[in-house]
Amino acid sequence: MKETKNISRSRAQDSSAAIEKMYITMRHLFNRGFYKPMGISGDTLREALLALRPEIYGSIADEKVELNGLLYVIERLPVGIEECRFINLTSDEGYSKSHFKAIVPPKRRRNCYRIDEEQMNVEITRGRSDIYDILTHLTFIFIESHKIKNRVLLDDVGEVSRDWVKLEAAVSQIKKLPLIEKEKAISHAANILGRTFDEVLGIYDSFGTETEPDRFLHVIYWLGKLAIEEVVDNNKRTITFSPILRERLGHHIHGEVWANNIKEVLKANQLLDRPLHVISANMHSVMNSIFATPILKTKFKDKSDFFIYEELSKSGANELRNQIEAVALKQGMISLPDTTSGTNIDVQIFDTAKIDWSKTSFPTANLEEKKPVLIVMDYAFGEQAYETIDELLKPYKKDTLLNVKSVSIMGKAGILEGGKGDIMIPNAHINEGTADNYFFENELTAEMFEGNDIAIYAGPMVTVLGTSLQNRDLLKFFHESTWAVIGLEMEGSYYQKAIQSASKIRKSVPQDIKVRYAYYASDNPLETGSTLASGGLGTSGVKPTYLITIKILEQIFNIK
User: Fold this and answer.
1) Rounded Cα–Cα distance for residues 26 and 134 (Å)
2) How far apart are CA 42 and CA 335, in angstroms?
3) How far is CA 28 from the centre of its chain?
4) What is the reported pTM?
5) pLDDT digits over 206-228, tens only?
6) Which residues of 250-284 are buried (b: 16+ CB within 10 A; e: fewer)?
7) CA distances (Å), 94 to each of 97, 111, 244, 247, 540, in order?
8) Is 348 helix (H, G, I), strand (E, B) or coil?
């Protein structure tokens, strides 16, 4: 009789299973309509996140509270959400027309509305990826809140530690805490969090705002307070999904409105029959790459183009940016801020026929008789990339086909070999959690970027369900196995899926449409201290951003 071997799973396989479980659970909870994150209905989500232990959430599985991960999440959630027992995820349901003031998180563009003391409404207009993102973040902060509760709650009837009483007294102060009082409060908070005084002091000001410099204490207090009330009073926090959101999701309602707005503007400006080039980037790099250097070269004598781009990227450079925008608007740029569709994706349209090329950074631009039109769209978010590009590539009013010559994607991504600011050139996108993979001929090559003091990596990239769902074991598997993945991002396979279906199956755009993908590294999740939670790129992201943008434009403008 053959002996059965004891088959065990690797950590990467466990992680993959945990991501799949989270993905399925979140869809189930969405269809159900509500759940209690720290109750029985939230068990599976919590267990899967703790099994996964994503790099971005640091010490989520330890007893001590994770500070960098908490800061990362708090910057992506609306101010005040830590005070709310009821969180309602909605579609765009008209709150912008009410007296409620929109609260927009500093690092994630989504409109949120504080309905009353206990309820926060969060508008989900960017597809399922937005839901996965926010549910994962909420699960994380609720797990952390129960760590705080475990360290301060002394019994089942609500007696709390002295540190908690002192923290409560500090939070009740309306004015900014004097230095001595602040340091006393930090000392008590450090005991509660299981962290050193130095660790808390180091991150304290990062949580603060101009109006609320002591927000760190406020966040810790309210997370702990609601967790204590969940146990002592059985007042469970609840997440609900509005009926309208459940009805609308997946039907491209926001993407269709967004794409139709663009096509109407193209029609009104007689640009519909011109060669179109779609570029997914930010709202400054294309405009600055074309116009900035000639306008500012007298101000920044003997300085390189990249020095000028760095100056423009600084927070106080509004006057310089306005100067360039004014010139661009006179030379055929049309600005389309998104105010109606809910996608939160702004757009710029450049009519190259109206540009005086002798006064640009591309004086040798070799344009065909029918001058191209650039449609620059701000970054999409996850699955939203499919919704927006799929709608944009559809015919105008069902019968006017668009002559889209190329789609170029310039984005941020995590790198698995190298560091922040390096460049990745993919030749395929692998969809995490499925067998879907998309191979393509990338018009950009690694050789084009050599000689610029930036490391270049080429190969497949994985499109992940969320950057906050990745851990080292899973990423090591993708990188070190025959997949040979060089980086991870959230939109690539969705863009490619939409482009392939429009060009190869639906024939709504030319079959020989060109694609360009290039990413610059925002973090290396395989390196300790280099995850997204470790802080932003600063000016180190400027050079790769503009280098990619310029290479895309050189191809569109036929510059050899």
Assistant:
1) 11
2) 44
3) 24
4) 0.88
5) 999 888 999 999 999 999 999 99
6) eebbbbbbbbbbbbebbeeeebbebbbbbbbbbbb
7) 6, 11, 11, 16, 40
8) strand
